[in-house]
């Protein structure tokens, strides 16, 4: 049985936050390919906003995690756009196909507004 969200949630914007830990033995060329493919995801035309980054040089604190290599933040207008991105978006499918061999770990934190 598939759970469905109440209708009001289908129009809710959402932020898709992804953190990548790359394999330690990647060549400079592989890292460059990963970066270029990651940056290309920001150009998806139905996004509200896209951001690609690396850990900021902030102070080490117990609550700060600088262990990841790259982050991707995509702002979707609604959950349908996110579902399309995950299952059908050619740019995302290409990214996964090309870049999945480059990372050891990936974590995703999807968020929606509470107000």
TrEMBL record:
Lineage of source species: Bacteria, Pseudomonadati, Verrucomicrobiota, Verrucomicrobiia, Verrucomicrobiales
Protein name in the entry: Stress-response A/B barrel domain-containing protein
Pfam families: Dabb
Domain of life: Bacteria
UniProt domain Stress-response A/B barrel: residue ranges: 14-111
